[in-house]
Amino acid sequence: MYQYSEQDHQLLLERVSQFRGQVARRLKGELSEEEFKHQRLRNGLYLQLHAYMLRVAIPYGLLSSEQMRTLAHIARKYDKGYGHFSTRQNIQYNWPKLEDVPDILDDLAKVEMHAIQTSGNCIRNTTSDPLAGVARDEIEDPRPYCELIRQWSTFHPEFNFLPRKFKIAVSGATQDRAAVAVHDIGLRLVKSKTSEEIGFEVYVGGGLGRTPMLGKVIRAFLPKQDMLTYLEAILRVYNMLGRRDNIYKARIKILVHETGEEKFRELVEAEWEKIKAGGLYLKEEDFNWVKGFFNDPEYDILPDQDADFENLMLSNADFARWVDKNIELHKQSGYRIVYLSLKTAHQPPGDVTADQMDAIADLADKYSLGHIRTTHRQNLVLSDVQLKDLPALWGELKALDLATPNYNHVTDIISCPGLDYCALATARSIPISQAITARFDDYDFINDLGDVSINISGCINACGHHHVANIGILGVNKKGTEVYQLTLGGSAREDAAIGKIIGPAFEADEIVDAVSEVLSVYLENREDPEETFLTAYRRLGPALFKERLYG
Amino acid sequence: MDNYIKDRKVDSNEWMPFTGLEDGDSLPTGDIYVPLEEWLNARETLLTRNGRLGVALRNTDDPAIIKDDLERLDLVVLEFPKMADGRAFTQARLLRERYGFKGEIRATGDVLYDQLFYMQRCGMNGFELRDDQNASNSLKAFDEMTVTYQPASDEELPLWRRNK
Amino acid sequence: MALQVYTASLLKEGLVAYLALDNGRPSWTTDIHLATVSNDDALETLKTAAEQSEQDNIVVAPYAIDVFQTENGIVAATKREQIRAAGPTIALPQDNIRESREAA
């Protein structure tokens, strides 16, 4: 994990002190709300439906146990004892007071954390693969590149007042667990077709919101040395040409769309030619330096089997289910990757209490080399657990309500906070996710359905990523009533697709039945249990589903 | 009070904006700056004067248009029609870093305390603060942050290489 | 005639607040039942007081909402405002955890 230098620390302290000054000026009335808004948003502070909301950055989803304990401390001391992990791998607090925020930032700075650029029209926290460095299908670890992007983008003086927010995701594996196709820029580490050289496939102009689009491949292969100069060229073209006349057309996806992919590429390449040899050109020494922070830990040499583990698999069905659903193979023999499900019947998706956070930090220390990762599907990961420790870890996770065996299954629902918390929302999301979870909370059913995703957004801004769910739900307000549109066929993975609205919206008390019908159509029509929902939907098309839902 | 900062000092603004070019005989003396269109239309007339000259760009103009004129100019004025519109940050960097402009790059419009740090990093060194801002109180904004990660007009190298 | 109250967010705390006038003296309460209800005619007085509070940096972005007077007190007309007045409609996480532990 990246270790702060004295200068990194200095920068955080200066930022906290600057923000403390901004808050003081606001309270004294020297800053208007409109002006302060730009400043507080650039520090992750929103004014939401009930209170301020502080979004804390978790750079590319990587946390130490010490950092997790600080997050727990903040939840307890300044908030109502819980936090919410978001689809951008960050954590949000729902109830901080403005006056307390500088103190919260001080506490965060002590553990190398902050809220820098977690909102506002600037380059946001870079997201990545939660399995970076441990995945079996990895081409190269994306985290060193994410760290370089973090440094390049932090307080970038030219790009702090962009037309709109800007999100970058980096994936280093064959499977896409970072949803690169739906980011303003998506970078996929790839091997050159002609040599062993590693570089990036560059996607630009993906995004959800009211105009969902998949990113276009602007460059099929970008040598890794050119990563930052190329990003700078894209951002520069966007800063000058992106639309500022209409907030709904201000994202880079609209610029790419309106300019045309070919012309946009020409603009970027022309700008890049002029800066590619500049100070941001990355040298071998830069990679060596940054990769040094992400070396493999000293793994024990272990067999990839364990008698106690095997025995419990045979004797305890609950354990076997958990292993089947929430455990992934690790690149290192004798180790496993463990998903901690934040999707239970008892808590909103992504919510974690301070007690749970402390306990997770302890488990990370005890079983997983002191690190925790956050995922864009709002779960957590312990990435380096020894096979022999799985039974004990499972017992502890169960006691914490973090062992629901449902990863990538029907009750592993992504949900935005919706109208229960959000000032922009038009309908509630969490109660719908809870109703769906309650309806399908049966292991055999979940298991039979297999790999399927349900995502819920409480408004057109699509923070719940409903467009890229196999089954997406969008809540809208229709003449004062919350109604829910169904979209089918989306995917956020390497086969990324935007789902299509299947028909007229359902009322809150009808939507769970509608989802149930959709699942039934799949179960009745799949070729065999191996055919996933998405594959079946793509084969069958929408007609059967439409007929069942609307007659 | 001009509410004007130049090279990190409160200063008085000597420059006059000028657009009345219909009558070539009545060109004012002293330091004037003109909109880009006037510059393009009346470059030669303007150059007959003795005072210093500046050009004001709209934030949609490509600074490349004046790149060959920069040696004859002492001032380029950039605009921030509202705080959130950050196009002039790019214009400033291009003027300084790509076209090597050595004169004053001046920020005008919604020029507020909290942007000064970023403006300075992009090569702006003249600041016409918005009327309600206090120039002497604003000087400390330049030094609120001392650590910078990325190259810009004030640094050629990223932090990680400066340390080596 | 539509009944309305003025609402805003408290600048320091961020919490939802409602304007109450006591002999013309404005104060802000987090309890909607204590808000001063006004019909169209008297709304202007509330508006002036609310805007003054905004200028005084006590509240952010005040606006009027429609309400009903019921036997249980003041009820906001829209779902959004009902949620603002009463808090999230779901149990907060620690409440749930406590309940599920007690049940177990």
From TrEMBL, chain A:
<dbReference type="InterPro" id="IPR036136">
    <property type="entry name" value="Nit/Sulf_reduc_fer-like_dom_sf"/>
</dbReference>
<dbReference type="InterPro" id="IPR005117">
    <property type="entry name" value="NiRdtase/SiRdtase_haem-b_fer"/>
</dbReference>
<keyword id="KW-0004">4Fe-4S</keyword>
<dbReference type="Pfam" id="PF01077">
    <property type="entry name" value="NIR_SIR"/>
</dbReference>
<dbReference type="InterPro" id="IPR006067">
    <property type="entry name" value="NO2/SO3_Rdtase_4Fe4S_dom"/>
</dbReference>
<feature type="domain" description="Nitrite/sulphite reductase 4Fe-4S">
    <location>
        <begin position="119"/>
        <end position="274"/>
    </location>
</feature>
<feature type="domain" description="Nitrite/sulphite reductase 4Fe-4S">
    <location>
        <begin position="408"/>
        <end position="528"/>
    </location>
</feature>
<protein>
    <submittedName>
        <fullName>Nitrite/sulfite reductase</fullName>
    </submittedName>
</protein>
<keyword id="KW-0408">Iron</keyword>
<dbReference type="InterPro" id="IPR045854">
    <property type="entry name" value="NO2/SO3_Rdtase_4Fe4S_sf"/>
</dbReference>
<dbReference type="InterPro" id="IPR006066">
    <property type="entry name" value="NO2/SO3_Rdtase_FeS/sirohaem_BS"/>
</dbReference>
<feature type="domain" description="Nitrite/Sulfite reductase ferredoxin-like">
    <location>
        <begin position="346"/>
        <end position="399"/>
    </location>
</feature>
<dbReference type="InterPro" id="IPR051329">
    <property type="entry name" value="NIR_SIR_4Fe-4S"/>
</dbReference>
<keyword id="KW-0411">Iron-sulfur</keyword>
<keyword id="KW-0479">Metal-binding</keyword>
Automatic annotation (TrEMBL), chain B:
<dbReference type="InterPro" id="IPR008318">
    <property type="entry name" value="UCP030820"/>
</dbReference>
<protein>
    <submittedName>
        <fullName>DUF934 domain-containing protein</fullName>
    </submittedName>
</protein>
<dbReference type="Pfam" id="PF06073">
    <property type="entry name" value="DUF934"/>
</dbReference>
UniProtKB/TrEMBL annotation, chain C:
<dbReference type="Pfam" id="PF11011">
    <property type="entry name" value="DUF2849"/>
</dbReference>
<dbReference type="InterPro" id="IPR021270">
    <property type="entry name" value="DUF2849"/>
</dbReference>
<protein>
    <submittedName>
        <fullName>DUF2849 domain-containing protein</fullName>
    </submittedName>
</protein>
